[in-house]
Known about the structure:
Blueprint lengths: L7 E3 H6 L2 H17 L2 E5 L6 H14 L3 H4 L10 E3 L20 E6 L7 H7 L12 H26 L14 E10 L2 H4 L9 E4 L5 E5 L7 E5 L3 E4 L7 E5 L1 H6 L9 E3 L11 E11 L3 E2 L14 E2 H11 L12 H8 L2
Parallel strand pairs: 1-2
Antiparallel strand pairs: 2-10, 3-4, 4-5, 5-12, 6-11, 7-10, 7-12, 8-9, 8-11, 13-14
Helix pairs in contact: 2-6, 3-6
Amino acid sequence: MVSSQVPVIDLGPWRAGGPEERRRIASRVDEALQVAGFLLVSGHGVGPELPERIREAARTFFRLPAAAKAPYAVAVGGRGWLGPGAEANSYAEGAASPPDLKESWSCAAEDPTGIPSVDAEWFRPNAWPAEVPGLRPLVAEYLAAMRTLSDELLELLACALRLDPDHFTRHTGHPTWGFNLNWYPGTELLGPPLPGQFRIGAHTDFGTVTVLDRQPGAGGLQIHTDAEGWQDAPYDPGALTVNIGDLMARWTGDRWRAGRHRVLPPPAHAPGEELVSLVYFYECDAHTRVESLPAPIGRIAHEPVDSHTYLRDKLDAITVPAAAGPVRTAAAADAAREP
């Protein structure tokens, strides 16, 4: 079972335990990230009330008519509304597919570094929907918790490799990050899936760690392992789902694998299923030199990369070309609402 390869890591014992307990937890993390690239993390300190309030506010926005959302429309990597038909994550693996069956509200790091070229690309001001004024303060509170948790996770990962605890966090003094509210509506809005179409196509994330607060669903998250192929991701209502991205896998010389995953379309027996996921993508300081750890930790010595040149190339890869085949549009979604 894939659940046996995705352990629940309780941060309480990690924080309070003695050296032997911490070594045991770190060893379990190392083992899981070699196999699946995923963990479930409990004891994280984020109660269920805040994510649910964010979901409620997000649904208010997503259920607006397309004309009301259009002023906030952005391309992949932008800050605002990413509408239907804009993104196909499978493109990151070189696999063409219909666009992903979702909408997103995206924001990202905005506190400037003082370096104009960096700030213009990676630290621009975020947009917020005037129609839902309560969304911004809720998200700000959540993002502060995610930043703290992500640095704690990076320290745990360093210890799992028997490195200094700040091996990764020394590169997160002024990091970039992204945050998506992903809305997965039912087929009554976007129509039935086309052949090969998913809510999110198969891919790996691009950064260091991703922290996901998700809802279980029939059309939900699946993860891929070599031993078992695609399997439903394990779920624990008290835990957050954590996976490592391409930069971290590369940093470890492919000792750890980036967690490959996808989100299934609504199934025939639950066509009206609606889910909202909160996805925090953590990265590192702009233009960090990411160099593979040598053996015996690392297994493949990748060429060093500039972290943010690498990230930009990945974001560009999943942008659906304007000339790509049939897409589900917001206009079509509005038409589906008509009696």
